[in-house]
């Protein structure tokens, strides 16, 4: 079980506990009653929240997304970390001059994938997990997401090792019993060698 953060259009945060496979796409915001969607956030532990400080010592310029709390406009701003600026400072909305909040970007990986997204490895826009499996099947690839049977692969390897061992033992037996080595075997048995 994990604690997930959901945000509504007004950027109210509502936390929800569930397993990853049962995590809903949206829930009801406890503050305003609107639909709140899941958003990947920095994990919270020991009282630390993602709004207290920046999580890196990065010094330089970075482009970040912000959402206006008044009009909902999403815009980009360059943040200069070396000048002491922070994503948590908020920025003035260029449309209504209202206050905005930083919108964290989401990096897609196997634990946080949200569909649809463009898979750079496959070179295609994926609609859902079934679509990924279909594309992989068409290309002769094995998607590793739970349907990859490790035991079956180990079993194939063990079978191959057993076949090669039997083949080697047969080869050794043929050499040991080859008629060309009859005199050598007699000499060994009589202790002459």
Structure overview:
With 193 residues, the chain is an alpha+beta fold. It has four domains: 1-41, Rubrerythrin, domain 2; 59-106; 111-148, no CATH class; 159-190. Helix content is 24%, strand content 23%. It has three helices and nine strands, in the order E-E-E-E-E-E-E-E-E-H-H-H. The chain has helices at 129-138, 150-176, 182-190; strands spanning 2-7, 13-18, 26-28, 35-38, 61-68, 74-80, 100-103, 117-119, 124-126. The strands form three sheets. Strands 2-1-4-3 form a four-stranded antiparallel sheet, with no helix packed on it. Strands 6-5-7 form a three-stranded antiparallel sheet, with no helix packed on it. Strand 8 and strand 9 (124-126) form a beta hairpin. The model is unreliable at 43-55 and 107-111 (pLDDT under 50).
């Amino acid at each position: 079980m994990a604690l997930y953060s959901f945000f509504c259009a007004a950027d109210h945060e509502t936390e929800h506990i569930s397993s990853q496979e049962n995590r809903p796409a949206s829930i009801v915001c406890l503050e305003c009653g609107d639909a709140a969607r899941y958003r990947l956030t920095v994990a919270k532990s020991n009282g630390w929240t993602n709004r207290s400080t920046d999580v890196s010592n990065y010094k330089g310029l970075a482009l970040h997304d912000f959402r206006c709390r008044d009009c909902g406009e999403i815009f980009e701003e360059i943040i200069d970390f070396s000048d002491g600026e922070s994503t948590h400072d908020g920025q003035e909305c260029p449309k209504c001059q209202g206050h905005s909040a930083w919108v964290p970007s989401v990096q897609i990986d196997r634990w946080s994938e949200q569909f649809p997204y463009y898979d750079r490895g496959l070179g295609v826009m994926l609609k859902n997990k079934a679509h990924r499996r279909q594309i992989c099947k068409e290309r002769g690839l094995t998607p590793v997401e739970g349907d990859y049977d490790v035991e079956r692969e180990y079993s194939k390897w063990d079978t191959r090792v057993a076949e090669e061992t039997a083949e080697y033992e047969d080869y050794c037996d043929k050499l040991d019993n080859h008629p060309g080595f009859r005199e050598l075997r007699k000499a060994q048995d009589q202790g002459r060698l």
